[in-house]
Amino acid sequence: MDRFPIVFLIATLLTLVSAARDDFLRLPSEASRFFQPPATDQATRWAILIAGSNGYWNYRHQSDVCHAYQLLRKGGLKEENIVVFMYDDIAFNEENPRPGVIINSPHGNDVYEGVPKDYVGDDVNVNNFFAAILGNKSALTGGSGKVVDSGPNDHIFIYYTDHGGPGVLGMPTSPYLYASDLIEVLKKKHASGTYKSLVFYLEACESGSIFEGLLPEGLNIYATTAANAKESSWGTYCPGEYPSPPPEYETCLGDLYSVSWMEDSDMHNLRTETLHQQYELVKQRTINGNGMYGSHVMQFGDIELSMNNLFLYLGSNPANDNFTFVDKNSLVPPSKAVNQRDADLVHFWDKFRKAPVGSSRKIVAEKQLLEAMSHRMHIDDSMKLVGKLLFGIEKGSELLSSIRPAGQPLVDDWDCLKTLVRTFETHCGSLSQYGMKHMRSFANFCNAGIQKEQMAEASAQACVSIPATPWSSLHRGFSA
After folding, report:
1. At what angle do helices 360-391 and 439-447 cross, to 10 degrees?
2. Annotated catalytic residue: which of 67, 163, 378, 438?
3. DSSP-assigned states of every residue in 449-477
4. Which parts of 247-321 are beta strand (E)?
């Protein structure tokens, strides 16, 4: 063989290796293939987007999902590869000042137009969510029938936004979603060999508890959460904060972690930005100066996947191809944010404050506010009393708030947890989105050996009556 072509090739390779990494992206395809994996466009990107709430006061969750859908479509994902779960009671809600329009930021465009109605209303449930992940059409009950029908070389992105609590995530109807069940579904998906890698972004209070001590390495899954296992996540673009929604809006438009990753994705070249780079930027913005209006974004699973480019999962908007990544967050956090669990009260209060004196709207808003507060007091007082009845005054209070060391799962026996919650709700009414904050107490009861019969007796004594409010309806609870 002629030595000249070999020498020329070696010299060319050395020149390319010494070039800046950004230059690789602009090399002719014949040269760049020496340094990059095979073209990822040949693998299919799949996504599941799910808002687990309903009610206008939870506007932000469906707004988040709609924004995510628009982002993925601009990134090049096909509609048939994006599965959307949302109750769909926001866009045309009588409270919405712009009928048929949903916005995710104060000056944002409509993100609702074109979003497919794959699973709406009561079809947004745990069973259908799991079936969609597993690609199991025969397990579906209602909806469009769309599932993640992925193959071994494909990449999957799952984004969930809603209320949560230790070890649990909300749904518009019962039952709610338990962490142990979600992890089993992810393990089953991995065992089926139907994906190459999976990324899970999770917005919820105590969302770290969904994966902490539960998601093993080796599943080719990388997850980030809005909060650690013991803190709230936060709504943003809320009435009374800066930046605030347009004055006609009486609800939060988005969630802090969610708008952080989406607004970052909207402006960057996702062909060059990695999951890790986005994680760092989102963490910085969501902690919000380490003040009282922020949470700690966490990561779990196969952390090495975070070196992958976001392009693998989200695609990339061609309009951003010339963006040069700057390792600094140009997106300013809000002056303050609203605890996820208090966002409904913010809505009811703002509605009450703005309504004319003596109007039916003011009367309705006052009723909604009082009912929500009554439910909260009932749940909090009932849980305190149950703790005292089971363990005595001092030990009961201590056990209710006890937190396991970081890295341990919430509870040893998840079936016990489900049983104690169902038993409590039978006697005391639904925990609802607010009552999810008490899941750690139920887990502590299980870890201390409390049985169903003991919980039933204590709950019956603690709850001689249940407030006659929509919040206490078991339709909003964990029971199945």
Report:
1. 10
2. 163
3. T--HHHHHHHHHHH-S----SGGGSGGGS
4. 254-255, 298-301
| Of 205, 416, 446, 463, catalytic | 205
CATH assignment, 43-340: 3.40.50.1460
The pTM score is 0.90
- 338-339: strand order across its sheet: 254-255, 234-236, 338-339
- CA-nearest of 297, 283, 292 to 241 is 292
Q: At what angle do helices 343-354 and 360-391 cross, to 10 degrees?
A: 150
Q: Partners of 159 in the beta sheet?
A: 49, 201
Domain residue spans in the chain? 3-32, 43-340, 355-476
Annotation marks residue 107 as catalytic: no
Separation between Cα atoms, residue 400 and residue 396, nearest integer Å = 6
Q: For the chain, how big is the Rg over CA atoms in Å?
A: 24
Residue 205 falls in the annotated catalytic set: yes
- pLDDT tens-digit profile of 344-362? 999 999 999 999 999 999 9
Just give the CATH number of 355-476.
1.10.132.130
For residues 280 and 307, the answer to whether their CB atoms sit within 8 Å is no
- The tens digit of pLDDT for each residue in 393-418 reads 989 989 998 999 989 999 999 999 99
